[in-house]
Amino acid sequence: MLTGRSPSPRSSDRVRPDVAVVGAGPIGLAIGWRCAARGLRVEVHDPASGSGASAVAAGMLSPVAEAYFGERQLTDLLLASAARWPAFAAELTATTGVEIGYRTEGTLMVGLTGDDLAEARRLWAYQRGLGLPVTPLRPSELRDREPALAPRVRGGALAPTDHQVDPRLLVPALRTAAQRAGAVLVPRTVRRLSDVDARLTVVAAGCGTAALTGLPVRPVKGQILRLRAPDGAAPGFRHVIRGYADGEPVYLVPRPDGEVVLGATVEERSDTTVTAGAVQRLLRAGVDLLPELAEYDLVEAVAGLRPGTPDNAPILGPLPGRPDVLAATGHHRHGIVLTPITADLIADLVLGGVPDPLLAPLRADRFDGAALGGPEPTMEGDRWS
Ligand SMILES: Cc1cc2nc3c(=O)[nH]c(=O)nc-3n(C[C@H](O)[C@H](O)[C@H](O)COP(=O)(O)OP(=O)(O)OC[C@H]3O[C@@H](n4cnc5c(N)ncnc54)[C@H](O)[C@@H]3O)c2cc1C
Known about the structure:
alpha/beta; FAD/NAD(P)-binding domain; D-Amino Acid Oxidase, Chain A, domain 2; eight-stranded mixed sheet; 8 helices; globular; binds flavin-adenine dinucleotide
């Protein structure tokens, strides 16, 4: 798309950037970092970097536990991005000196009741059928790994390669990395694409994308809680725990500083109010799986908006009829895990490389006629994040 860097300016002239990124969430910042590191002049526009979905996200990197029926291509993309995470995290920390909470203890998937376990086992069988590392565990093995689990928990499985990162550490680190590579952060809202003056524009505005591009990106509300272990202690469990508790899907993400993230609802709504009913359901499910949570402080209850698409997969590529505008959006439940691969694929595209075959099913024109329509029906009821 771009060949070479724009010429150097005379001393006081504003330089027309090679690339303007709209949106400084994890996706826009990582793209800005990668493009600037490859020698391009980059601006990233956002009035409130990190205030989108990433501000509330749990940070699970779970391509295995989130390999759902009917989403094979998306699963392949998630796996490919998760495989890049160890090197991405190491490079980001080496570049910035910031620890981003990347942890590799793995994920335990559990079922509280017999019905919960039956439902979970169907999914694990599907995941194992794809060749994914899912190891069923007997209740005693489960409790050897996590003694804090409720005695009622009927069974579980381990996904050792599903990891986690802390998005509230990740985004500032990405901001630092992008700036150190030479990207300029511009604190403003982009109202129209024509307001951006650059050789190429990348729209990575999360739920702000539809208004700018007409692409069918819709908000999908998620309510989520943060608890804290008493007396400054670390949580009494090490793995990410995902499970069904009396039919309620729930996940628990422990952080070393004592925080536990407990989430999340999936609602076809665009408000960010927190409801008593959602808080009650999340707490009940969480405490049913890990009774010690009842003693934790409840420190935060928030809602965020995931940028969803009609097929739950991101949109990566030029807008129809606009080779000068790339979309990098619609990451829905997976924007954190998909950050490394999105940044690499888009930077390659910006620099005019041969499009990676992974991009073919993610083209912006695959929703012909769906732009700005109402949300398509999705099977969200049994999803976790
Ligand atoms: C409850 C919840 C839990 C989640 N858990 C996980 C998880 O465990 N793992 C995972 O991988 N993902 C998770 N996600 C999803 C993840 O947070 C998103 O997919 C990800 O944040 C998308 O990144 P983004 O940069 O595209 O958008 P966002 O993080 O939403 O950032 C968009 C940015 O664009 C800016 N912007 C918008 N419009 C404009 C405009 N017109 N001009 C300038 N700037 C603009 C905003 O200010 C914002 O800073 C979760 C989301 C929610 C809500």
